[in-house]
Amino acid sequence: MKYDVYGIGNAIVDIVTEVDNQFFVNNNIEKGVMTLVDDKRQLELMKAIDMKRSKMAGGGSAGNTVVAINQFGGKSFYSCLVAKDELGKFFLEDLKRNGVDTNLTYENCPEGYTGKCLVMTTPDADRTMNTFLGVNSFIGIKQLDESAIKNSQYIYLEGYLVASPHGLEAMKEAKKIAEKNKVLTSLTLSDPNMVKYFSKQFDEVIGASVDLLFCNEDEAMTLTGTNSVTDAREKLKQVAKRFAITLGANGALIFDGDTFIQIEPYKVRAVDSNGAGDMFAGSFLYAITHNHSYAEAGKLASLASSRVVSQFGPRLTPDQAKNVLADLIA
User: For a FRET experiment, which of 89, 108, 181, 291 has its CA 20 to 30 Å from that of 248?
Assistant: First the structure.
């Protein structure tokens, strides 16, 4: 296999900033979730924050995950869409710098605006996102690379894509190509609001089942219509052969197809939860595609995501990723 993981998802440039809870009241923002906004609304919010204290970084949920895979020593491919603008150039250079292959070049990018996300972190380490998708709204089947899918161990589908009819079709087609070529399918539910408002679309993607599902406890309960993780984990068996439920400060719960595995948390002082789930998925996928057990993968993912939440931004540096591996072996 040429690639460990083939990902498809939104290409987003993150603008990360710190705010207090009053900021959400003053600007009528729902705290703790991802909200899609138009360019006018996002421009209003960017005027309200302190841009000088904000940081710009390559982002997007699945984008963070495929970068993490590479940083741990794996090899990934990413299908996405950016515009022919400065942010688009920034995003593609970021993928290249992290060794992620893509079928998108700056020359064949469309006119328009590259997606960007205002990531607002608060003192309680919660993160709130207002996202302008830009040209991501048009990502579809033609962005897929069938050869790369065939030459991967897993495909990784970003749940945010269900909000777009074109994105939904791309997810379904990628899964169809994968299954035809005996490539395993992994899916992240991405956000509780996505599951709440697009449950029918998720059902279309999942079909009979997926091989591996990533979600947090709220997403698991929303998808299954239950009120506890205990009930949700039993119902998830009907839609996923294996799954990982992240539990925040309580670690994670893994189902390896036979057994439930409780993953202990690593105690850290959390300052920013942005990217924790993306890192968990990336480090977990790296581990299981490199001959590690699900228990070992869960331990690596728990440690890696604890390092992410203890700093600002959704990613580790390559050196930090190497240190995570070294700390596990030590």
Answer: 291
- Supply the pTM of this predicted model: 0.91
pLDDT tens, 254-264? 999 999 999 99
| Helices and strands (H and E) in the chain: how many | 13, 13
How would DSSP label each residue in 101-138? B-S--GGGPPSS--EEEEEEE-TTS-EEEEEE-GGGGG
Which token pair is 204?
């279309």
> Is 4 within 8 Å of 74 (Cβ atoms)?
yes
Indicate the burial class of 326 (C-beta count within 10 angstroms; 0-12, 13-18, 19 or more).
exposed
Domains and CATH numbers, the chain: 3-10+66-88+95-111+139-329 (3.40.1190.20)
Distance CA 105, CA 90 (A): 12
Q: What is the pLDDT of residue 145?
A: 98
CA distance 121 to 100: 27
Q: Give the tens place of pLDDT for each residue, 299-324.
A: 999 999 999 888 877 788 888 988 89
